[in-house]
Specification:
Blueprint: H1 9-20, H2 24-33, H3 45-63, H4 67-81, H5 96-99, H6 102-120, H7 127-140, H8 159-162
Helix pairs in contact: 1-4, 1-6, 2-6, 4-6, 6-7
């Protein structure tokens, strides 16, 4: 059975659901992780490493037969980035106050896309690549794979180091199911 986002559709849907409910502070934190005006310096090694990996993601997706899946999830992220309907109640969304929220969403897009593409391509990436793309999202929101940092145990022996965090207790997701 072919699914819209590939073999990790459940995790992809979870990420998109979390994205729809991110509070302004979480969006600002994701934007800060992306570098540039809203965040870290361009010479931050993680920013540079993510940029290098982003340049290869299309090839990875193509070789893995997932171009349609990354396009589909990319379209969902683009819709979220240009929408303010989830920030304010109906009737307020058209106000000038709501349009001010588009900036932080647009600034967060690179990090959100990193996480979205990582979920779709999870089985095609090595552990270091997966961690690089998912780390900012997991720090702010939690793992899109569920309660564990990575349900597929890509980390192997390095997983012990990854478990030093507080398993998402500070993360955005109130209900990790």
């Amino acid at each position: 059975m072919k699914t819209r986002f590939g073999p990790n559709s459940v995790a992809a849907e979870r990420l998109l659901e979390d994205l729809e409910h991110l509070p302004p502070g979480a969006i600002a934190a994701l934007a800060a992780a992306g570098g540039g005006t809203f965040g870290t310096a361009d010479d931050d090694p993680d920013v540079a490493s993510r940029t290098d990996l982003r340049a290869r993601l299309r090839e990875i997706a193509s070789l893995g037969g997932r171009l349609d899946a990354i396009r589909a999830i990319g379209d969902e992220v683009a819709s979220w980035a240009s929408s303010t309907t989830h920030w304010f109640p109906a009737g307020v969304a058209g106000s000038s106050e709501s349009t001010a929220e588009i900036g932080p969403r647009m600034a967060a897009v690179p990090i959100v896309l990193d996480a979205a593409y990582a979920v779709v391509l999870e089985d095609l990436l090595d552990a270091a690549e997966l961690d690089l793309l998912l780390a900012p999202w997991e720090e702010v929101v939690g793992s899109p794979f569920g309660n564990e940092p990575d349900a597929t145990d890509h980390e192997g022996a390095a997983g012990d180091e990854a478990d030093d965090d507080d398993s998402g207790a500070d993360s955005f997701r109130a209900d990790p199911t």
